[in-house]
Amino acid sequence: MKLLVIEDESSLLNSIKDYFEQSDFLCEGVLTYKEAISRIEDFSYDCIILDINLPDGNGLKLLQYLRQCKKDDGVIIISARDSLDDKIIGLNHGADDYLVKPFHLSELNARLKALLRRKYTQGVTFLEAGSLKLNLASREATCNSHPIALTKNEFDLLLYLLNNKNKVVSKQAIAEHIYGDQSDNMPSFDFVYSQIKNLKRKLKEKGGDELIQSIYGLGYKLSI
Hints:
Layout: E1 2-6, H1 10-22, E2 26-30, H2 33-42, E3 47-51, E4 53-54, E5 57-58, H3 59-68, E6 74-79, H4 84-92, E7 97-100, H5 105-121, E8 126-129, E9 132-135, E10 140-143, E11 146-148, H6 152-163, H7 171-179, H8 190-205, E12 212-215, E13 219-222
Parallel strand pairs: 1-2, 1-3, 3-6, 6-7
Antiparallel strand pairs: 4-5, 8-9, 9-10, 10-11, 12-13
């Protein structure tokens, strides 16, 4: 899962990033409105953690821009503003949740996981596609009831394909989802091919031969 933290207090930004990176999230962080706009334009995120008081702009305008562009990134506002009116304004602008500072990172984590469950699974713990089953809580996968040993990136890739089942996703989209802005520094998308190859091999070993298809010149598709 890929997160973007927009927070001008560097110590809090680093604390949030460190916390979620230890939980195997891909977590990027920016300190300013200008940096945030650049990330939002170039990438999509599973969730954006957004401070609305930024030194060079208003976080609510970022949120409006995001929704005007029809992007469905989840958004949790974190703010020192604790009035009911502030919360209502944030939620009416398109935020999914609103958390008042100071807060415990464990509470932010719980709210984030609840948001992701709503976003991707309508609150369920398991995702299924034919013989394939993913347990989102334990991050375990089975095919034909046989457990599949997956790396973190392989699980995230499989989940991404499953959330886009029967749709073709490009190598670039996969690279950006799994590796974020780190993908800009990679000379090619050969690493995506390698990840897909390993994933297809592991699925084949459990009887899931045709689940992932390579679409020549376009990308990959998980079909059910």
